[in-house]
Amino acid sequence: MENYLLKMSDDELQKLISQENQEAFAIIFNRYWKRLYTYAFKIYKDEAVCEDIVQEIFISLWKNSGNTVILNLEAYLLRAVKYKIANQIRNLKFDKEQLDVLESIPAPHFTINDIEYIEFEKGIMDQINQLTPKCREVFLLSRVDHFTNAEIAEKLSLSIHTIEKHISNALKQLRLNEHHNYLLFWWAAFFYVN
User: Fold this and answer.
1) Which of 118, 152, 154 has its CA nearest to residue 135?
2) What is the pTM of this model?
3) Burial track 22-35 (b if 16+ CB lie within 10 A, e otherwise)
């Protein structure tokens, strides 16, 4: 495994994973497997099921790496564990003990900053999702996947001028909502503090 990859941030590694870089995926796997398994086991107390759940999450991360925008990988993975376990319990025949476990699933321990960031991220993604499909695709390729305008134009068989226009339109729309983003950020902060 390349030593320089070990020093990369989650975002940098995610970009490599979206290009099917197995070494980058191995680093993310090694970085988070134990934490995810420990979190799962605290909730469910079944080693085999917890191992399967964590494995499924990493398989999904690999398969969907080019399709899913993840701005906070650790929070995303912890939420995935929580929901997989909840689904696992729902799929079982319910008895009192299992219902108690389902109701007592703790939320991942996030700081206020994590919660604010997740809410802010959701607000931004909601706004990006309101863009037209082509504009959204161009914007995500540019700002999330870090493609150049020329690379996007080639990939989508569009002119560079069209790509620039889509990016400009997306930025204008997001700027129009900038005031909304600011209010959303402070609303989230106020809501979670109180």
Assistant:
1) 152
2) 0.49
3) eebbebbbeebbee
- Do residues 130 and 181 share a domain? yes
Q: Which of 109, 141, 164 is the last residue of a domain?
A: 109
Same domain, residue pair 125 and 151: yes
For residue 165, what pLDDT is reported? 93
Query: What single-letter amino acid sits at 105?
Result: I
7-50: pLDDT as tens digits = 888 888 888 888 888 999 999 999 999 999 999 998 888 899 99
Which residue from 15, 57, 18 is spatially nearest to 36, judged by alpha carbons?
57
Distance in angstroms (rounded) separating the CA atoms of residues 171 and 42: 43
Please report where in the chains the tokens 């960031």 appear, as a residue.
117
**The tokens of 58 are what?**
């990493």
Domain count, the chain: 2
Residue 176's identity, in one-letter code, is L
Greatest CA separation found in the chain? 62
Radius of gyration of the chain (CA): 20
User: Packing angle between helix 160-176 and helix 149-156, nearest 10 degrees?
Assistant: 110
- List all residues 6 or more positions away from 156 whose beta carbon is below 8 Å from its beta carbon: 134, 137, 138, 141, 163
Let me know: does 40 contact 50? Beta carbons within 8 Å. yes
